[in-house]
């Protein structure tokens, strides 16, 4: 069925639900599982060089936190999960990585915006599901 599964993970509740579902699918199908976190590119129009360094350091701290979470999930769920961090536009980066890595399933969490738009797909989820070369599972 599936041989390579890519799950978008940023530590949010939606991405954690997507990760849990992706792990179950990987275990059922014998697929390999990789998680991706996409950080935005620097600079964000900083006023000083130290602001760039501060953003870079904050990104590293956050990625280390995600790695620790991934190690915990790997142990708890008895599944090997590789976490990669790439910089760029979130949807484009996920799509490019999935294509280049020959993934046959992308798993994403659904993310509502507000009570009015809560039933809509999040921007990244919408863009990935519209443009993916492979199947996409959106987890609610």
Automatic annotation (TrEMBL):
Protein family membership: Belongs to the universal stress protein A family.
InterPro entries found in the cross-reference section: Rossmann-like_a/b/a_fold, Universal_stress_UspA, UspA
A Gene Ontology cellular-component term: cytoplasm
Name of the protein this chain belongs to: Universal stress protein
One Pfam family recorded for the sequence: Usp
Taxonomic source organism: Thioploca ingrica
Subcellular localization, as worded in the UniProt entry: Cytoplasm
Principal location: cytoplasm
UniProtKB keywords: Cytoplasm
């Amino acid at each position: 069925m599936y041989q390579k599964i890519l799950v978008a993970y940023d530590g949010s509740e939606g991405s954690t639900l997507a990760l849990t579902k992706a792990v179950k699918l990987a275990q059922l199908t014998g697929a390999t599982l990789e998680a991706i976190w996409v950080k935005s590119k620097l600079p964000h129009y900083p006023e000083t060089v130290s602001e760039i360094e501060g953003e870079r350091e904050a990104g590293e701290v956050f990625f280390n936190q995600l790695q620790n979470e991934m190690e915990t999930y790997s142990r708890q769920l008895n599944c090997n999960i590789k976490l990669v961090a790439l910089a760029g536009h979130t949807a484009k980066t996920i799509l490019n990585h999935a294509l280049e890595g020959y993934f046959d399933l992308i798993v994403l969490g659904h993310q509502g915006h507000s009570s009015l738009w809560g039933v809509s797909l999040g921007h990244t989820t919408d863009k990935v599901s519209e443009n993916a070369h492979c199947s996409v599972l959106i987890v609610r």
